[in-house]
Amino acid sequence: EAVVHWFKRDLRTTDNQALSMASAKAKSLGVPLICMFIVSPQDYQAHLTSSARVDFELRTLEIMKEDLAEKDIPLYVTTIQERKEVSGHMLQKFEEWGAKHVFCNIEYEVDELRREAELVKRCLEKGIAFTAVHDDVVVPPGTLKSGAGKQYSVYSPWLKAWTKHLHEHPHLLEASEPPSHNPPTARTTFSTLFELPIPSAPPNKSLPPSDRTRLAHLWPAGEHAAQTRLHHYLATKASAYKTSRNFPAAPATAMLSVHFSAGTLAARTAVRLARAANKPAQRLETGDAGLVCWISEIAWRDFYKHILAQWPFVCMSKPFKYEYSDIEWDHSPQLFAKWCEGKTGYPIVDAAMRQLNSMGWMHNRCRMIVASFLAKDLLLDWRLGERYFMEKLIDGDFASNNGGWGFSASTGVDPQPYFRIFNPLLQSEKFDEAGEYIRKWVPELKGVVGKAVHDPYGRGAGEEAEKSGYPRMAVEHKVQREKALERYKEGLGRG
Ligand code: FAD
Question: Are residues 22 and 162 in the same domain?
Answer without folding.
Answer: no
